[in-house]
Automatic annotation (TrEMBL):
It comes from Butyrivibrio fibrisolvens. The lineage of its organism: Bacteria, Bacillati, Bacillota, Clostridia, Lachnospirales. It holds the Pfam family PfkB. This is Carbohydrate kinase family protein. SUPFAM superfamilies: Ribokinase-like. Keywords: Kinase, Transferase. Gene3D superfamilies: 3.40.1190.20. The keyword Repeat does not apply.
């Protein structure tokens, strides 16, 4: 069944200034609407590396909800476990400056309670043949507990990504069950109740090693934007991966693509460092465009044997 991704779907409404952006002022520009959401983006990223993922999530019964499912199908994502429910779609409104960075945003989260029912009714068939599991860690705790129970039952590794660290930090006791956790520098400060904004990669790498030994989180990656990323394990392995230099168009989705690359690498036999390098390459490909997801790649471009991938029926 490939990698199984569990999480929310959003509609992203993005505004780009056509002239110099003025904070607090009225800006002329272009407004676009695209399918988004951390988990939905990750599922499409994985599909764009021809790895046939399965997405477990919700949409609503509007035309947008139908379009989301159709697009995922066209990208070879297994959509069998997507359900249409009222308030199934979230929304994210963002304003970008002339450098492609988000300067203001607001979001409305969807009601994800139906995902718990999907896992209760179809969890065994979803997990039994999965290559690994990806979860949005700020989902309701009851959903996370169901995921970890099924993952333990079928001996599957779970990789955790976060869209709202303020919520996710309330579930930190469950992170010991995750094979790897990925967040950005600001989120890491929230998670560890500290401030890391002014630290260089080497300082942050050393701190991460100590933090993971104390917390017993198996693996963790902290992304640092244009400075790259640092990674560590609770056993003391650690390292730093530089970013790829590209012209920035839109940073939306870069973190999701990075996470997708890390999960792809760890799922299909790559080292921790190699997995972070795959994530770095995918993130760079997203930053250079206005798309939320990476362009098409082949598994062989990352040293992954495509014959390992089982297509869904």
């Amino acid at each position: 069944m490939g990698i199984v991704v569990i999480g929310a779907v959003f509609v992203d409404i993005k505004g780009y200034p056509s002239m110099q952006y003025i904070a607090g002022g009225r800006n002329v520009g272009n407004v676009v609407q695209v399918h988004g959401g951390v988990s939905r983006n990750i599922a499409e990223d994985i599909a764009n590396v021809e790895l046939r993922p399965t997405f477990v999530g919700l949409v609503d019964e509007t035309g947008i909800g139908i379009d989301v499912v159709d697009k995922l199908k066209n990208h070879k994502v297994n959509t069998k476990y997507i359900r249409k429910v009222k308030d199934g779609l979230g929304s994210w409104l963002a304003i970008f400056d002339n450098s492609g960075d988000v300067v203001a945003s607001i979001s409305k989260r969807p009601d994800l309670s139906e995902i718990a029912r999907i896992l209760d009714e179809q969890g065994d068939e979803i997990f039994k043949d999965a290559d690994s599991i990806i979860i949005e860690f700020d989902m309701e705790k009851d959903i996370l507990k169901r995921v970890f129970a099924l993952a333990q039952k079928y001996d599957k590794k779970v990789y955790a990504v976060v869209s709202n660290m303020t919520i996710a930090v309330e579930r930190r006791d469950l992170l010991k069950n995750c094979a790897c956790f990925v967040c950005n520098q600001q989120e890491a400060g929230i998670f560890f109740s500290d401030v890391y904004d002014d630290m260089d990669p080497e300082q942050l790498r050393e701190i991460l090693v100590c933090k993971l030994k104390a917390s017993q989180i198996p693996k963790m990656v902290i992304t640092l934007g244009e400075l790259g990323s640092v990674y560590a394990t609770c056993d003391g392995e650690s390292g730093y991966v530089k970013s790829r230099q590209v012209v920035v168009t839109d940073t939306t989705g870069a973190g999701d693509s990075f996470f997708a690359g890390v999960a792809i690498g760890l799922t299909y036999g790559k080292s921790f460092r190699e997995s972070c390098e795959i994530g770095t390459r995918l993130a760079a490909s997203v930053i250079a465009t206005k798309e939320n997801v990476c362009p098409r790649f082949l598994p062989e471009e990352f040293g992954i044997d495509a014959s390992m991938i089982k297509d869904f029926e």
